[in-house]
Each structure stands twice: as C-alpha cells, then as structure tokens.
Write a structure and sequence with these properties.
Length: 153
C-alpha cells in the first residue's frame, strides 16, 4: 500500500511520472497506459495518495504491531485501515466514472481487464476479506463475553 504510493507522491512533487526515469517511474508509466491520471499531476489522485502514505502507512504499522503483540485494538485498526482503503479506491475511480471515464483506457483488453479490473480488484478483495475476518472475530468475542456475563447473573 504505502510502499508503492510513497515514490509516486515524491515523483509527483518533483516533476511528473511521464518525464521521470528509473524503475519505479517506469512501473507507474506502465500503469499510466491504463489510467492517464497517474502520468501527470492529478490533484485528486495525489491527494488520495498522500493520505494513503501518511494515514494508511501509519495504520498498517500499528496493525502489524497489534497483530504481533495480540493487542485488544487489533480489529478496530484493521477495520479502520480496510475502510480507508475501500474509500480511497472509490474516490480514485468514481469521479472518473461520473465523467465517462475519459482517463481510463477501456479499449485495450490488457489495460482494462488486467490493469484496471484485476489489479484494482485486489484492493477491494483483500480489505473485504479482512473486514469479514474482523466481523467474525468480533462476533466470537461478543458471544464469549455474553455467555460469561450470563453465568454470573
């Protein structure tokens, strides 16, 4: 998540992806063939990616710590991070969809189905599965707490 967006934000502020060199820039240039907003400074995309790098990056570190140390707040952080990721995905694509997708290359099978649909669906599927995991775990905790409470009444 923040590992790939950090260099994008940096390159966006020091020029633009289309005119940058290097491995990371070449990866973003390739994705830019599917979504042109990633090639030049698009304020919506850069704003969302700054939020991703700062907030989601921090939340990801806190979540790793919470998982490793088995902290009580793990699922709260996990749910928050997943919702942030889903919101970011929605705000990345919905404005372009509402305008008729002028920046999305929907004519090429590769760019549409592989780059746009498959790669971006991963950013929906994984948060969705993690939200489901948190739901199941919180439900178990609730039922466990409820059954303990009934024993002492």
């Amino acid at each position: 998540m923040a590992l790939k967006e950090g260099p994008f934000v940096y390159l966006s502020f020091t020029g633009n992806i289309a005119e940058s060199d290097g491995l990371i820039a070449s990866l973003w240039k390739e994705y830019g063939k599917a979504d042109a907003r990633w090639l030049n400074f698009d304020p919506t995309i850069v704003s969302l990616e700054i939020l991703t790098v700062v907030l989601d990056g921090f939340l990801a570190l806190v979540l790793i710590y919470a998982i490793v140390k088995e902290k009580y707040y793990r699922h709260f952080i996990q749910i928050t991070l997943c919702v942030c990721e889903l919101y970011g995905g929605w705000m990345t694509f919905s404005p372009d969809w509402l305008m008729g997708s002028p920046n999305l290359n929907t004519n090429s099978w590769l760019y549409f189905w592989v780059y746009l649909v498959f790669f971006n669906s991963v950013w929906v599927l994984i948060p969705g599965l993690l939200l489901w995991q948190s739901w199941v775990e919180l439900k178990k905790m609730y039922h466990k707490g409820n059954s303990l409470g009934k024993k002492f009444q």
